């Protein structure tokens, strides 16, 4: 939103500009504000000053609108002594006001991020394959058009799983319980888990010895990164070997999608 940083107060509009911590005062008081307080609607901030004070500061009126405006006004001393021009700034959301416009900050202010979900890092990790990430995102949101959902929408389709043709097709069954899917998972995941286990044992032991003999210390994040790199390096040639037999999935692809 646009905010006004008041300097001398000769251009900032008292009622309509966003120059107080409460926003435009006209939104606080409604259309009756100018008439009730005696300050016309097009007045600038400087016009609200009398002898270095706000014109309402000496008012003893108990009118609710007058009290509301009086309590929302900042200290007048800085405005009276200022020779700086009023400045209009851009302030998207809760960010700091700035004289430059940022499309990215504006987008974030208009589309605030929701609460983090537990599957975020499994879907939107660095190095992801976009089309794979998209389908995984749809899966995580339980929005894929599996047959149980199609039938719930009233479509006349068979209930059984397309892959195994034995059990009703749901997302849980299709990707994890189906015998066909289990065969795909088992071929790759078992080997990957074994490689990770051995790489972790080797790297932890190496780190232990380095601390004893070389007085060398590394953070756990560095060790984790080394394990990932070692496993990926091993999976790459294995993936090439598998491509001659199957072209739809690779060991390295499974590693990146599950553990990257």
TrEMBL record:
- Give the InterPro entries listed for this entry: RVT-Znf
Per the database record, which ranges form the Reverse transcriptase zinc-binding domain? Answer: 101-185
Lineage: superkingdom: Eukaryota
Q: What Pfam families does the database record attribute to this sequence?
A: zf-RVT
UniProt protein name: Uncharacterized protein LOC130510011
Please report the organism this UniProt entry assigns to the protein. Raphanus sativus (Radish)
Lineage from the top down?
Eukaryota, Viridiplantae, Streptophyta, Embryophyta, Tracheophyta
The gene from which this protein is expressed is: LOC130510011
């Amino acid at each position: 939103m646009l905010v006004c940083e008041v300097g001398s107060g000769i251009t900032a509009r008292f009622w309509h500009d966003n120059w107080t911590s409460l926003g435009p005062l006209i939104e606080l008081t409604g259309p009756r504000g100018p008439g009730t307080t005696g300050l016309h609607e097009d007045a600038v901030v400087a016009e609200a000053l009398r002898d270095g004070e706000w014109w309402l500061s000496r008012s003893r009126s108990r009118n609710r609108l007058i009290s509301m405006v009086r309590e929302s006004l900042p200290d007048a001393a800085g405005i009276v002594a200022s020779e700086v021009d009023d400045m209009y700034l851009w302030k998207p959301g809760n960010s700091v006001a700035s004289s430059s416009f940022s499309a990215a900050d504006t987008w974030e202010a208009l589309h605030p991020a929701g609460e983090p979900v537990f599957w975020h890092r499994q879907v939107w990790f660095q190095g992801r394959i976009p089309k794979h990430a998209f389908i995984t995102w749809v899966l995580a949101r339980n929005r894929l058009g599996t047959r149980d959902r199609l039938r719930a929408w009233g479509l006349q389709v068979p209930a059984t799983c397309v892959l195994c043709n034995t059990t009703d097709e749901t997302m849980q069954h299709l990707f994890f319980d189906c015998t066909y899917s289990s065969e795909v998972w088992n071929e790759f995941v078992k080997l990957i888990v074994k490689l990770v286990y051995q790489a972790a044992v080797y790297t932890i032991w190496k780190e232990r010895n380095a601390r004893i003999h070389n007085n060398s210390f590394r953070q756990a994040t560095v060790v984790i990164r080394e394990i990932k790199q070692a496993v990926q390096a091993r999976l790459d040639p294995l993936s090439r070997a598998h491509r001659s037999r199957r072209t739809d999935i690779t060991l390295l692809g499974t590693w990146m999608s599950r553990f990257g």
